[in-house]
Amino acid sequence: HGIRGFNWPPSSPDLNLIEKVWRWIKEELKKLPYVLKSKEDLKRELQKLWDRVDSRDFRPYIERLTCKIEDVIAVRGLATIH
């Protein structure tokens, strides 16, 4: 999907793009007009959503990453406000 991976510490969710992707997936699952009744249903929907992930949708976040890194350094690894 054109998303380049980075090895970030697990305690830095502010710097972890996959957290943004998971948040998007969770929001999309909430919009489903039906209830998922099995693990298979969930797997199917997750796969559909994963296939829709487009790195262009996350470009604004990626472009702000340098500033976010500086923010995290400034707060010594704690969560930032944006």
UniProtKB/TrEMBL annotation:
Q: Where is the Tc1-like transposase DDE domain?
A: 3-40
Q: Which GO terms describe its molecular function?
A: nucleic acid binding
The record ties this protein, via InterPro entries, to: RNaseH_sf, Tc1-like_DDE_dom
Q: What is this protein called?
A: Tc1-like transposase DDE domain-containing protein
